[in-house]
Amino acid sequence: MSTSALKDSVLSHLKYSLGKDPEHATTYDWRVALSLAARDRIVDPWFESTRATYRADAKRVYYLSMEFLIGRLLEDALVNTGVYDDAKAVFDDLGLNFGEILHDEPDAALGNGGLGRLAACFLESLSTLGIPAMGYGIRYEHGLFRQRFEGGRQVEEAEDWLTQEHVWEFERPEAAFEIGFGGQVYENGGRAVWRPQEAVIAQAFDTPVVGWKGEWANTLRLWGALPKTVLDLQRFNAGDYAAAAEPEALARTISRVLYPDDTTEEGKHLRLKQEYFFTAASLRDLIRRFEAEHDDLRDLPKRVAIQLNDTHPAIAGPELVRILHDERGMEFETAMEIARGCLNYTNHTLLPEALERWSDGLMGYLLPRHLQLIERIDTAHQTQHPGIAIREHGEVKMGELSFIMANRVNGVSALHSDLMKVTVFKDLHDMHPDRIVNQTNGVTPRRWLRTCNPRLSGLITDAIGDGWIKDAERLSELEPHVNDAGFLDRFVQAKRENKVDLGQWIAESMGISVDPDAMFDVQIKRIHEYKRQHLNILETIALWQEMRDNPNGDWTPRVKIFGGKAAPGYVFAKEIIYLINSVASVINNDPVTSKWLKVVYPANYNVTLAERLIPAANLSEQISTAGKEASGTGNMKFALNGALTIGTLDGANVEIREHVGADNFFLFGMTAEEVMERRTVEGHAWDAISKDPRLARAVDALRNGTFAGGDHDRFRGIADNISGPDYFLVASDFSDYWRASREVDQAFRDTGHWARMAALNTARSGWFSSDRTIRSYASEIWDALPSKPLRNI
Ligand SMILES: CCc1ccc([C@H](C)CC(=O)N[C@@H]2O[C@H](CO)[C@@H](O)[C@H](O)[C@H]2O)cc1
């Protein structure tokens, strides 16, 4: 498509789709017009992908997830369909600010963090690989809350991405299903019949997910909840207007808002309704699609692979058995076999508080037939494998149910999958030793390098061509260039220019000036004790104290950048946020140290902010307590973008260090085994503090009001925790973290050496592409293949 054709398409959409005259068009109008023009180019490959799948009667992959952390779609679509430069030329030509138009798009924040973003990367890779697939989720009216800081404290505001037209979705009135809740189960001719007490309509909204080069596009189908009856006319005519509108309000509540917790299961009534709502609608939809082309449901596993993104859609097991056994009359055992032949389960966390357990009461109330079927599934499994129960202490354990109903169960990094076998799923693993496999996470190199870092990707393509974008492991072809001074200079230049851009944005949006030649040290992720943002800020305090002791010391200038939201109910995490902001305001206004050290915490960390921060990072903080971070995916994005990692042997850090080389990774801290050992030591925190005066002094600063205007109590909670129970071993890992951080200081001063290490990280991180991960799922779990050979780039 030529620039002029694109221009015509944009102008005609502005006129005929938005009814706007260019003279009076707003940034929003131009952004929507461009999006419609870009969308037009995706519809044909989208249709063709569907046709090809039907022609080939190909096996389909269904990815069921409560979260899809998509972010923005326009720039990704322009790059993936190869018209980004044309679009830029069109708006330069129109004398409009292209960057401003791109930034007008709201993030689709339909997720909390790692699990949701992984789902989005997976969909893009499935399309790039041409594997027929569909993502199923919920069309939340309100995504993850907007974070604002008030006096350094997190304040949540409702997110409202749908208050403006969402141009990337197509409503599908024909794809709607009635989903029931509650009610009773009756016996009828030897068959169980469930009569729900209430019902809502699940309405489909489709978003095309286009792959690299726009050759294939799969569908993300999100369900919105609608009332069976829009208005209770009797009540309306009786003047009881509120009551008249109640059915609609009640129904829409199901898809109203994303639960903002990412580690603690609340066990909330509405959460279980959400999980059943989208899971049941998705199973209805995929069975209808199967039966349109096939007449024997026993062949379902040959044509359908379902991936459960954690336990959130685990009700899929009992629901599939209910449909096959209750509705279709299959023998229970056959229904179980067919269901297990389709289902696979990915575990994303070992944190006990994150493992979902629904009370019998709630499950029996909302899903009475499912509770009966879970009982039967439990009994059947215990007959063969006594000792493990799905139902225990009046609760239904969704992890056990998912494991027992799955063909394959996987962890998301090598360490995590091994830990699953010896912790949460030890007994089940002993019973089914070949069921757990590992699938180390990955990230899409399109969004997380090609699109977010055009300077570096331009440099790479100049050096080795652009084959790496589709096949990221070809980044290894950069290795010979790493010894070429010219390449390294351009590598350093690209990073510096990204840092200058970020510095400008920080100055404009936060009024803080940062030195682009300082080390940009970045920790961006959800705020959680196991991710140890409080270890990072404690080290920052100790560094600041040492700088004040010796202001003329030859310090390595650093900018500590934090980003992340805390679950609204997570008090300790919110205290950590308050501490970071309080430390920042003292340090950033300290004339003695401000040339050496700055702390920056932009609010409302999301996908778009990550795309702005990662290309400008020198150092990636991956400092979780070993054994706690299942994988991490930010760690991969930083390595791809030429940042060095300071981290523990946790999650995928282990594999990143193996791939980039131990010399190009700053390792510190206890291993997962040593962590278990250290916890058994009585007073392990005090012991560590007593042995490290630097640590003791930093903790004292939390107690003596240094960062609290003299208020000794403000951060007592954090100080007491770190010097007391300290379950995540902040005190015990501090000294080694300090040691590694000083090594980082030394290394950063040798710009050539640092550049070489950074370039090797980029060159050796191609394996962490989500294309590699998806290829592995496809061959080891789904037995799914690309539907048509995609033209080699
Ligand atoms: C029920 C509340 C809830 C909601 C979400 C979750 C997710 C599983 C939390 C999550 O996002 N886990 C992260 O998943 C990433 C993708 O695999 C991993 O890289 C991270 O290590 C893991 O913390 C747990 C509990």
UniProtKB/TrEMBL annotation:
EC class: transferase
Subcellular location: Cytoplasm
Record PTM N6-(pyridoxal phosphate)lysine, positions in chain: 637
Catalyzed reactions: [(1->4)-alpha-D-glucosyl](n) + phosphate = [(1->4)-alpha-D-glucosyl](n-1) + alpha-D-glucose 1-phosphate
EC number from the UniProt entry: 2.4.1.1
Cofactor(s) this protein requires: pyridoxal 5'-phosphate
GO BP annotation list: glycogen catabolic process
Keywords: Allosteric enzyme, Carbohydrate metabolism, Cytoplasm, Glycosyltransferase, Pyridoxal phosphate, Transferase
GO CC terms, sorted: cytoplasm
Described purpose of this protein according to its UniProt entry: Phosphorylase is an important allosteric enzyme in carbohydrate metabolism. Enzymes from different sources differ in their regulatory mechanisms and in their natural substrates. However, all known phosphorylases share catalytic and structural properties. Allosteric enzyme that catalyzes the rate-limiting step in glycogen catabolism, the phosphorolytic cleavage of glycogen to produce glucose-1-phosphate, and plays a central role in maintaining cellular and organismal glucose homeostasis.
UniProt similarity note: Belongs to the glycogen phosphorylase family.
PANTHER family given in the database record: GLYCOGEN PHOSPHORYLASE, GLYCOGEN PHOSPHORYLASE, LIVER FORM
Name this protein carries in UniProt: Alpha-1,4 glucan phosphorylase
Gene: glgP
